[in-house]
Backbone:
């Protein structure tokens, strides 16, 4: 699986493209989700922990060297704010885990319904991407091109077998990767024909060639030649 985020599709708007072995999934790239991940995700938690450690070390160093009280107080406030922010992140992570547990508990009785049970099993087993909204199989592709538009942006254009055309403008450093992944899907779905192989001599359908003579004729025997 390989995902490219921040792709602007026409039509489609801002999306992320997730490639799988036999197709790809287009997902709306929601700004709210990106902001939440930036502010309260794992990266934010690691950065907060680093700020906490740095503020403790700086506070100790300032107190030992007799720094001005204002600098010591500012360092202390940085520590307090980092602790509060870290607590908020931990609380949100805990709430997310609890919500997942509650969702499982609430929907568990629904597993008795055959249709719902089959849907859940399809998602747990292999082939789950095919069940996601926005799934496009590789067999739906008929062409892919990489070019530069008048604004100097790299554009990857994809044509499907139904005649629809979509232009993707990815981040500059992801343009080649996006094209290559689409091209790989296209090649897998449209393999090159095998080279022609001439049938072996004597095989059904083998056409006799003029320079081979009569296949039933014995070597050294020529019509009309009599041995003395």
Residues:
């Amino acid at each position: 699986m390989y995902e490219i985020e921040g792709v602007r599709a026409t039509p489609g708007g801002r999306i992320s493209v997730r490639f799988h072995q036999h197709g790809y999934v287009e997902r709306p790239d929601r700004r709210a989700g990106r902001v939440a991940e930036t502010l309260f995700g794992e990266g934010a938690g690691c950065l907060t922990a680093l700020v906490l450690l740095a503020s403790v070390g700086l506070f100790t160093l300032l107190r030992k060297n007799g720094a001005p009280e204002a600098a010591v107080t500012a360092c202390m406030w940085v520590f307090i704010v980092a602790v509060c922010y870290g607590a908020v992140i931990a609380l949100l992570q805990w709430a997310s885990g609890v919500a997942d547990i509650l969702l499982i508990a609430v929907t568990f009785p629904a597993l008795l319904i055959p249709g719902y049970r089959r849907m859940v099993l399809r998602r747990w087993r292999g082939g789950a991407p095919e069940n996601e909204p926005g799934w496009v199989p590789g067999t739906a592709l008929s062409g892919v091109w990489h070019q530069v538009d008048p604004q100097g942006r790299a554009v990857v254009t994809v044509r499907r077998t139904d005649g629809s055309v979509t232009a993707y403008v990815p981040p500059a450093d992801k343009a080649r990767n996006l094209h290559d992944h689409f091209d790989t899907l296209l090649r897998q779905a449209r393999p090159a024909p095998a080279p022609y192989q001439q049938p072996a001599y004597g095989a059904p359908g083998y056409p006799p060639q003029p320079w081979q003579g009569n296949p039933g004729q014995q070597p050294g025997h020529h019509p009309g030649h009599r041995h003395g």
Residues 138 and 184 are 9 Å apart (CA to CA). The two ends are 82 Å apart (CA to CA). The longest strand covers residues 2-10.
